[in-house]
From TrEMBL:
PROSITE patterns: UPF0027 (PS01288). The keyword Manganese applies. Its EC number is 6.5.1.-. GO terms for molecular function: RNA ligase (ATP) activity. Belongs to the RtcB family. It comes from Kitasatospora paracochleata. This is tRNA-splicing ligase RtcB. Keywords: GTP-binding, Ligase, Manganese, Metal-binding, Nucleotide-binding, RNA repair. The lineage of its organism: Bacteria, Bacillati, Actinomycetota, Actinomycetes, Kitasatosporales. Coiled coil: none annotated. Monomer. The keyword Manganese applies. Binds 2 manganese ions per subunit. It catalyses: a 3'-end 3'-phospho-ribonucleotide-RNA + a 5'-end dephospho-ribonucleoside-RNA + GTP = a ribonucleotidyl-ribonucleotide-RNA + GMP + diphosphate.
């Protein structure tokens, strides 16, 4: 599909609808953040998504947009369930419910630095990561089903955390509509051995410090202050989510013609939300979402124990939020209340102040939006704001600009070592060679991405965090 891009404001671009698009595309990015390299298909993907049956308002892209499977990463699309709206596994992604969890320490940077080498030495062998290399929680099938149904809630019931953790998790740490019968045998097999593991590459556990606070009132409500030490964890549903995505893309691909659906790209395989295949996927996806939440709960709890043991201080959960999920949400569209299936793929939900789904202590300030940047630059905490046009969604990271392959070509191991030393960051990768794929230059400038999010009213910055020590997958 040919994409004709129009600059709507200095911060935002529009793709006017041409056949088969049903709605326009809206890209919340200034020119310098657009994926414009020759051969890059991300903008075409925004246009393709606009052709999905039942899509309402627009196919949106966040400022960290880049090329993904079917949907762009940084893509948001809502479909009207009653009007035959579809759900598409490509609109969630392979790492179902991948997300970020932020924990706050009572220590400040100066108090932590003497402990940092010991903390890194202890966490390094303890936190399972890399491709298929063990997990914190060994379990059989029946316990795995408890995880799929109970998420972080189940992990806390089994002693891996405290009740307050759940108040600071999206959905209270578990969704109720998980249907573990829709999770195939291969997915279960892959999942059983990986509860409590980071995974590879872009997934990480990072010790950070708050280097700037933009909004003191929000920061205080989130439990953040200047100089404070935090831990950020980024991971998802590992092989289980990946296998569920693979299985359900295949199922939908086989029945699309029966539902009389045609899509401009086979990777957009989809089915009506109100069909057997649509419901099956959403049930399995919800099970993977619970799995990812239990996964982050376990990793956080282990880290908390290490901090307690080595520093004598605990870690409080700031928030846990997913950036790869589809959710059924009641929203007003054109003056009418509608049940929508909101796909956020590489996009974070960002509820505004006063939203009924927020816990009481966050209601006055809005939902924490966790935006990792890179292992050598910065990460951000934003808050949801009123007037968000993209169904209360915000960016989820800096977003890749170099392919993994290109990053390996541009950056060798000695250069990465030098850069990390210069940035003052202790890096513990599973492999230095593969960590070159994650060099900060491989990503967009996170400060620019956050500015674009703010200018487009997707969120508002609360705090900026910089890394001290990083365990990379
Ligand atoms: P994704 O979920 O798309 O794989 O990654 C989300 C974002 O995490 C990326 O766009 C990137 O900005 C960020 N990121 C990747 N690796 C690191 C890291 O080691 N540390 C931090 N702070 N952010 C990272
Ligand atoms: Mn992931
Ligand atoms: Mn992710």
């Amino acid at each position: 599909m040919n994409v004709h891009l129009v600059e709507e404001t200095p911060w935002r671009h529009r793709i006017d609808p041409v056949d088969p698009m049903r709605v326009p595309g809206v890209v919340f990015a200034p020119h310098e953040l657009l994926p414009l390299d020759p051969g890059d298909k991300a903008l075409e993907q925004v246009a393709n998504v606009a052709a999905l049956p039942g899509i309402v308002r627009a196919s949106y892209a966040m400022p960290d947009i880049h090329w993904g499977y079917g949907f762009p990463i940084g893509g948001v699309a809502a479909t009207d369930v009653a009007a035959g709206g579809v759900v598409s596994p490509g609109g969630v992604g392979f790492d179902i419910c991948c997300g970020v969890r932020l924990l706050a320490s009572p220590l400040d940077r100066r108090g932590l630095l003497p402990h940092l080498p010991a903390l890194m030495d202890r966490l390094d062998p303890l936190i399972p990561r890399g491709l298929g290399r063990g997990a914190l929680w060994r379990m059989g099938r029946s316990q795995l089903h408890e995880v799929l149904r109970g998420g972080a809630r189940y992990a806390v019931e089994r002693g891996h955390g405290v009740a307050r953790d759940l108040e600071r998790c999206e959905d209270g740490g578990a969704v109720t509509d998980a249907d573990d019968r829709q999770v195939g045998d291969r997915a279960l097999e892959r999942g059983a051995a990986q509860v409590g593991s980071l995974g590879s590459a872009n997934h990480f556990l990072e010790i950070q410090t708050v280097d700037r606070v933009y909004d003191e009132r929000c920061a205080e409500a989130f439990g953040l202050r200047p100089g404070q030490v935090c831990v950020m964890i980024h991971c998802g549903s590992r092989g289980l989510g990946h296998q569920i995505c693979t299985d359900h893309v295949r199922l939908m691909d086989a029945v699309m013609h029966r539902h009389r659906i045609t899509v401009p790209d086979r990777q957009l395989a989809c089915a009506p939300v109100e069909s057997a295949e649509g419901r099956a996927y959403l049930g399995a996806m919800a099970a993977a979402a619970n799995y990812a939440r239990a996964n982050r709960q376990l990793l956080a709890d282990e880290t908390r124990h290490v901090f307690e043991e080595l520093t004598g201080t605990g870690l409080d959960l700031v928030y846990d939020v997913s950036h790869n999920l589809a959710k059924l949400e009641r929203r007003t569209v054109d003056g009418e209340e509608r049940l929508l299936c909101v796909h956020r793929k590489g996009a974070t939900r960002a509820l505004p102040p006063g939203h009924p789904d927020l816990p009481a202590d966050l209601a006055p300030v809005g939902q924490p939006v966790l935006v990792p940047g890179t292992m050598g630059t910065a990460s951000y905490v934003l808050t949801g704001t009123d007037g968000n046009l993209a169904f209360d969604s915000c960016c989820h990271g800096a977003g890749r600009v170099w392919s993994r392959h290109r990053a390996q070509r541009e950056c060798d191991v000695p250069r990465l070592r030098t850069e990390m030393t210069r940035a003052g960051v202790a890096l513990r990768p599973t492999s230095w060679r593969s960590a070159t794929e994650e060099v900060p230059q491989a990503y967009k400038d996170v400060d620019a991405v956050v500015t674009a999010s703010t200018e487009n009213r997707l969120g508002r910055p609360v705090a900026r965090l910089v890394p001290l020590g990083v365990l990379k997958g």
